Amino acid sequence: MMTRCVVDPMTRIEGHLRFVTHIENQVVIDAQCSADMFRGIEKALIGYDARVAQQVTQRICGVCPYGHAEAAALALEHAMNLRPNANGQRLRNLIVGSYHLQDYLLHFYALCALDFIDITAVLHYQGQDAGLLTVRDWVKQEMASAKVFPAAPFLPRYEAAYCHDPTLNLSAIRHYLEALPIMATLHRMVALFGAKAPHPVTIEAGGVTTIPSLDSIIQFRTWLIPVAAFIRGAFRDDVTAVAQAFRPYFAEGRGAGHLLSYPFFPDATGANHAFAGGATLNGQYQPLDINKITEDSVRSYYSDQPDRHVKPLSSRHLTPIDWAQFNHERAQPNGKYSWARAPRYGGAVMEVGPVARIVNTYHAGINPAVTSLVNQYNQALGLTLADYPSVMGRHLARLFNALLILDRLEQDLEALVPDQLGFIEQPVPRNAQGVGLTEATRGALAHWIATDDQGYIQNYELIVPTTWNISPRDASNQPGAVEQMLIGTRIQNSAAPIELTRIVRSTDPCIACSVH
Amino acid sequence: MNSKRRQFIQRLWQIIVAAGAAQLFNFEELLAAPTAVNRPRLLWLHGTSCSGCSTAFLDIEQVSIVEILTQFVDVIFHPDLSLATGEQVIHILDHLTHHEDGFILVLEGGIPIKYPHACLMGERPMTDWITQLAPRASMLIAAGTCAALGGIPKMNGTVTGSMTLREFLQYKNINKPLVALPNCPMKPEHIVYVLLHQLKLGQLPELDELARPIKFFERTIHERCIYYADFQERRYAERIGDPGCLLKLGCQGPVTHNDCMRFGHNHNTNTCIRSGHPCIGCASERFPRQIMLHRYGDRRAIHNEFDA
């Protein structure tokens, strides 16, 4: 018997996501993801000054604004034929790198941990930790109250098989509480050189406008100490322990496993990156070729050129369908069902994110730190590279990314020169084009810009990590990456399909980014 | 009163002091502040938002967000925090619509009117959700520039017909107390202050004609700028990194009302101007403007530029 299982709204992700699955004999046989929010920012940028793209595109997302700031700056620098000086690059790395760490902690603790960890375990807590006692007493009080929704926002939840290990449950809940001030500290570190977080203003084409002082460098280092201890201690322990406790999840949510990444985290010259760009298709790595990137909108809520594979910057229009057409499309069996478009790489559906960065860098062999970390964990946990595109592989790869970026932050901070401007000024380029490639925590991010004869934006295009992951079907009717991850999943209880929400959350969706 | 609670109240007090609101409350009054019985209930929704105001809310430091959740407000639903997902959420919201009132509704992001399908939750447009839920609320908070003043979803060139929360209430003839807290993202101290004010004094703080608390938004960035003396002496920066007033590099400080120069961002770690960048006016009615970082001597117009 076939049942239909809908999760809408999907919470603890960024934005408005709906997914619909069809289940036969407890196995998902079909899945559709709908990105349910649209603002139309990329074409609205036409007519704004080229530098405005940096400030506006980062407001596409309040979770990964740093990625858009950097990609926009890189695109404009490409159009200007300009590279920041060493101090500018290092400042940018410190802002972007700190933000990556904040984003990994936000994703693991605030968004995902309570999908695995049993929050009600706190009721049995007997120790002296003030945070845990506060939560325990509060949950007890709430449960005893006459409230309609006691212990919100922690209840209600899907009642399912959570972690049974009382020690792990309690230590992870304690770290959940401790992670929040660590995340605020990381945002302060972003603000130190970026002015504020979310939405740091200082990353501009040409470098970073902040002049670092000895004081600010010392302050950054002081804040980095507890952050580093938390990431190398609590975060590492929790991710590893959850990975071991939920080992079958290395086989869940695999999808097609084709992996796309862009070069990320440059050294001071901008020439060498900590993470490699490239594409791994069927386990075979190949260098990046951005000319293979196209997008279509056959199943997306737009009326322009819906059946054509469109290359970036080839159209200045993106016309949404109206309310009546929307309702018509939603009623069709093969109608449009998402605001996200369908990007493809040489026609292939690609997964982007932490796994792509790790696996592609491993294959490219450019970073010995990546190679040794992967080898070490593969041996300890009995994994191969093929296990990484999976629910637990994604969580583990995020840990690797955090550990690697933390090392690089410490190095960049050491080399930063106080009282030296890291910004090179140039006029905005006229009649120029550029592309900026980087990685947000959730994956490969590209901006394309074209300017007019006065330096205003003539056209702008974004292809964003979650657009790759959450994309709808394309002109060849291939399901998107997350849709493929859901198909084939066995679920225990279609009224509480936690297997599916764990899969979707493992990709760290950002719907505001995906549609923009 | 146990010592744990007293410590919590002490840190709450620090926020009040940091927000410059010490004259409104005294510490003893706060000791009688929220208990399990009179805690305000909070419902947080995302319009066409980026979740930036939600992540900024998590950054509140003097009291942890967990203390806020357990001792200060009942967060009935928050899209990024709630374990409830899918139908459980719709059940909560429908229950609020039909059986509850008196909760505080926080909206982040704009409300698209012309294309209602540009913001959906449970297949229902945000226009429907707000129309149903706002009349049940005791007060509404427009969190951040998008909900308060228009911001990014309403920028020149967008087509969805985005409205601010205030515009939407007028459009639907819903009359409810409303506070607008612009800044991109919202400053977390501002919402904590508003909630405390409502809780303690049973009313909203004094507001200006755009529903912004006068306490935070009475003065412009420019009036309190560290470079105000340079401005008066006409010492202008000509390049990024120069000392002096940033006006000629496009600074929006003179047309942006907010308290950044007093209380900074991220626990007063920094401000845009202190970090060498002109104010981009992210709390202003006219955000985003056509040019933000303006090259000295660039002849292109600096005023708002698009033909309205």
TrEMBL record, chain A:
The UniProt record lists the EC number as 1.12.99.6
Gene3D superfamilies the UniProt entry points to? Cytochrome-c3 Hydrogenase, chain B
Membrane topology per record: Peripheral membrane protein
Q: Which UniProt keywords apply?
A: Iron, Magnesium, Metal-binding, Nickel, Oxidoreductase
For Mg(2+), which residues are the binding ones? 42, 462, 516
UniProt keyword Lyase present: no
Q: Which residues bind Fe cation?
A: 64, 513
Cellular location(s): Cell membrane
Q: Which reaction does it catalyse?
A: H2 + A = AH2
Enumerate the residues binding Ni(2+).
61, 64, 510
- Entry coiled-coil feature ranges: none
Citing just one GO molecular function, the answer is: ferredoxin hydrogenase activity
Cofactor(s) needed by this chain: Ni(2+); Fe cation
Q: Which PROSITE patterns would you find in this protein's record?
A: NI_HGENASE_L_1
**Where on the tree of life does the source sit, at the highest rank?**
Bacteria
Q: Could you tell me which PANTHER family the record lists for this protein? A: HYDROGENASE-2 LARGE CHAIN, UPTAKE HYDROGENASE LARGE SUBUNIT
Q: How does it assemble?
A: Heterodimer of a large and a small subunit.
Q: What does this protein do?
A: This enzyme recycles the H(2) produced by nitrogenase to increase the production of ATP and to protect nitrogenase against inhibition or damage by O(2) under carbon- or phosphate-limited conditions.
Name this polypeptide is given: Uptake hydrogenase large subunit
Which species does the entry assign this protein to?
Thiospirillum jenense
User: Lineage in the entry?
Assistant: Bacteria, Pseudomonadati, Pseudomonadota, Gammaproteobacteria, Chromatiales
UniProtKB/TrEMBL annotation, chain B:
Q: What is its EC number?
A: 1.12.99.6
Subunit structure of this chain's protein: Heterodimer of a large and a small subunit.
Recorded family membership: Belongs to the [NiFe]/[NiFeSe] hydrogenase small subunit family.
- Superkingdom, taxonomy of origin: Bacteria
Which SUPFAM superfamilies does its entry note? Answer: HydA/Nqo6-like (SSF56770)
Tell me the organism's taxonomic lineage.
Bacteria, Pseudomonadati, Pseudomonadota, Gammaproteobacteria, Chromatiales
Annotated localization: Cell envelope
Residue sites binding [4Fe-4S] cluster 1 per the record: 50, 53, 146, 184
Give this protein's Gene Ontology molecular function annotations.
3 iron, 4 sulfur cluster binding; 4 iron, 4 sulfur cluster binding; electron transfer activity; ferredoxin hydrogenase activity; hydrogenase (acceptor) activity; metal ion binding
Q: Which cofactor does it need?
A: [4Fe-4S] cluster; [3Fe-4S] cluster
- Descriptive protein name: hydrogenase (acceptor)
This chain's source organism reads Thiospirillum jenense
* The entry's keywords: 3Fe-4S, 4Fe-4S, Iron, Iron-sulfur, Metal-binding, Oxidoreductase, Signal
Q: Outline the extent of the Cytochrome-c3 hydrogenase C-terminal domain.
A: 217-291
Q: Which residues form the NADH:ubiquinone oxidoreductase-like 20kDa subunit domain?
A: 50-197
- Which biological process, per GO, is one annotated for this protein? anaerobic respiration
A Pfam match: NiFe_hyd_SSU_C
Its principal location? other
- In the UniProt record, does the keyword 4Fe-4S occur? yes
Q: Which InterPro entries match?
A: Cytochrome-c3_hydrogenase_C, NADH_UbQ_OxRdtase-like_20kDa, NiFe-Hase_small_C_sf, NiFe_Hase_small_N_sf, NiFe_hydrogenase_ssu
Quote the record's binding site residues for [3Fe-4S] cluster: 260, 279, 282
